[in-house]
Design a protein that fits this description.
This protein is of the alpha+beta class. It has three helices and two strands, in the order αααββ. A two-stranded antiparallel ribbon has the order 1-2.
Length: 115
């Protein structure tokens, strides 16, 4: 009677090959600050979008304020709508914040977060 031998398991994508360095820790996808920003940083008025926004104005305002104050979180959240290919966005922060001052304050919003 013949016995079957199991094929060796394929290496996991999270397991380093023998002798290889361990996988690097995830890096944020943008160059924004990696810590929460102070509450007292000035912010410009939210962008006006003539078409319907993705939610009620109060919810959109909360989303933009969160994006402004927490790039250290949204830098790790990729955007799946394709804006990285069309608008050059790298992470979810870029859908809300177009430009920051050296101190991290928002200088200009991106209207993509409204959609």
């Amino acid at each position: 009677m013949a016995t079957e031998t199991a094929a060796p398991a394929a290496p996991s994508s999270t397991t380093a090959a023998p002798g290889a360095a361990a996988p690097a820790e995830a890096e944020p996808t943008t160059t924004a600050a990696r810590t929460p920003l102070p509450d007292d940083l000035p912010m410009p008025p939210l962008p006006y979008v003539p078409r319907a926004a993705a939610g009620p104005p109060e919810l959109m305002q909360q989303a933009y304020v969160f994006a402004a104050k927490n790039p250290h979180i949204l830098d790790y959240v990729p955007c799946y709508c394709g804006c990285g290919q069309t608008d050059g966005h790298i992470g979810n922060t870029d859908c809300f914040v177009d430009r920051r001052a050296p101190n991290g304050a928002v200088e200009a919003w991106d209207t993509h977060g409204m959609t």
